[in-house]
Design a protein that fits this description.
This protein has 212 residues and is of the alpha/beta class. The chain contains six helices and eight strands. Strands 1, 2, 3, 4, 7 and 8 form a six-stranded mixed beta sheet that branches. A two-stranded antiparallel ribbon has the order 5-6. Strand 7, helix 4 and strand 8 form a beta-alpha-beta unit. The structure holds flavin mononucleotide. Flavin mononucleotide binds next to helix 1, strand 3 and strand 7.
Amino acid sequence: MILGISASARKSGITSEAVKAVLQASGMEYEYVSLTGKRINGCIGCTGCAADNVCKLQDDWNEIGGKMLKAEAIVFGAPNYYGMINALGHACLERTFSFRHRDVLSLKGKAGVVVSVEYSTETQNAVQTYITKMMHSNMMKIIGSAAAQGYSQCYTCGYGASCGVGNVVKNHGFLEEIKSHHCPPRFDAQKEALDQAYRVGKLLGAELRSKK
Ligand SMILES: Cc1cc2nc3c(=O)[nH]c(=O)nc-3n(C[C@H](O)[C@H](O)[C@H](O)COP(=O)(O)O)c2cc1C
């Protein structure tokens, strides 16, 4: 079973679409989990997990950690917030510290796929780099990655046309009204991202089938 995690704070944004595209392309059984609305604290460094690889902090992460342990593969997707992975995604991966003690690596050998969503070309790869680093530190086998263009909230917040600090005015100047041709592409209009998600999903499916 493949576990797909979208770490976006938005339930139906680009990250969720991209993660689902990878899962569907795999042709394998999967479970999709969104971190939207979940309360996930960062690691507090208590080392309560050192003796048994079980995190002692209690919040919404513990159930997700349990799903990670059961899965054969993990597709992890997150968006870029302020030049780095968003806080929910960071906290979720940070807590896998609990899986790495006494030469025991609880996620070792599981297949991984990295999904990153960035709006700006200035901050490219920060999310992909972090997820990759965390999968490597858990000694997972990274099958590949898919990157999609983010959809800036400024296009839908209701004030974007005249907001001097937002992305709409930054990209198009002050507008009377935001029209569809001003807006970034939705995931299903991003051919390269769709192709990447499809390709890496198929590779993941092939990897898992070869192990059966
Ligand atoms: C608080 C916040 C900060 C953001 N900062 C950046 C940024 O620095 N660079 C960037 O490329 N996109 C940034 N974005 C845009 C998101 O990456 C984009 O909206 C993405 O589509 C969000 O993922 P989602 O569609 O799955 O919700 C930011 C969004 C938010 C809410």
